[in-house]
Amino acid sequence: MVKIIALYVAIGALVLLARIAFGMAGSGRPFGPPRPVAKRFLTSREAAMLDALERALPHCRIHAQVAMGALLAVPALPGRKRHIGDRNAFSQKIVDFVAQDRATGNIVALIEVDDRTHNPLRDARRDAMTAGAGYATIRIPGSVRPTFHEVRDRVAALLAPSGVTLATPMTVGD
Fold first, then answer.
1. Are residues 19 and 81 in the same domain?
2. Which of 23, 72, 83, 134 ranks highest by number of CB atoms within 10 Å?
3. How many CB atoms lie within 10 A of CB 82?
4. pTM as predicted
5. Calpha distance 83→113 (Å, rounded)
6. If we measure between CA atoms, which residue out of 45, 59, 48 comes closest to residue 160?
């Protein structure tokens, strides 16, 4: 009887180890986080906006869906260590579009396409943070259709000659 119980315990342990080794936990669910799957990079509206921006600003390279961590860094302050939380304040946030001058490589402006998910107070704090780093933000209301003429009118300030940068954030209203 003791041998049979020991045999069942051994078999149960082997089954449990096999389930763990093959990525299955107790209830048959995957062990650990789910495997990521591909998603669409841009919505059809964002793709149309990208096309319109590229046509309206031929002197700029337009980058879509840029992490703020690629644009901002935590400054080194005397007597203060850098903390991961300092970077976390911005690193996971995404900028809709970044306009970069083709000739100089300078960032000309950050372009945000606002929609019903945008919060004006949160957007103002975000714009203040990027302005503190020297970036101008142009906000295009969600009501603007992503056509060449509509978008060109909204980004007209960026049509200035190369080398001219916008020093303060601007909101382009309806």
1. no
2. 72
3. 12
4. 0.70
5. 31
6. 59
Measured over the CA atoms of residue 11, residue 17, residue 18 and residue 24, the dihedral's sign is positive
Q: Where are the alpha helices (DSSP H) in 22-170?
A: 44-56, 84-88, 120-132, 148-154
What is the chain's length?
174
Backbone torsions φ then ψ of 106, nearest 5 degrees:
-75, 145
Structural domain count of the chain: 2
- What span, in angstroms and rounded, lies between the C-alpha atoms of 87 and 115? 26
Summarised one tens digit per residue, pLDDT across range 12-36 is 777 776 666 665 544 455 567 888 9
Task: Give the C-alpha separation, 32 to 141, whole Å.
Answer: 41
Which range of residues forms the domain containing residue 50? 44-171
> Are residues 87 and 125 both part of a single domain?
yes
Q: Are 23 and 108 contained in the same domain?
A: no
